[in-house]
Amino acid sequence: MTTFELEHEPLEQLLDRVADADAALISLGIPRCPACLLMPPSLRELARARPGLVVGMTVFDGPEDWAKRTDLLWPRDIHVSRSSVPVLALLRRGRTVATRPGGAPAYILDDWLTEHLGPPAHPIPRAPSSAETSTLDRITARRTQQQAVKSLRDAGRGALDT
Fold this sequence. Notes:
By secondary structure, this protein is of the alpha+beta class. 47% of the residues lie in helices and 15% in strands.
């Protein structure tokens, strides 16, 4: 099995790298987002299953990164916000074919890709990969913290409804 390194790269560099690809999948995320942290092992699994698919990811670290959306993403019909990350965009020769908000294990993401690209060369087992499971274990504390914040926020909203 071939493996490769998958690092965050600047948005401009990522878009240039995938511009001529027959099929490319890019992930757009933010730091410390649990679903975004799961994307590297999921993207690696997708790249293994689909050898012709070019994959890459970027992280919006600060306001200057978010400002680039207007010129670099919106004209490509790729919309991303802090509440929609991660966002996946499937491109063919630099043109957006489909987008998908939110993360998931590779086998679920591959179901979405199959709608647009056909079946993978190497089917993905219908369960999270060992790398995905390991990542989930590693980020459990962050996921728990995020859920607690959402619960408090939602409870506060409920109080406003009474």
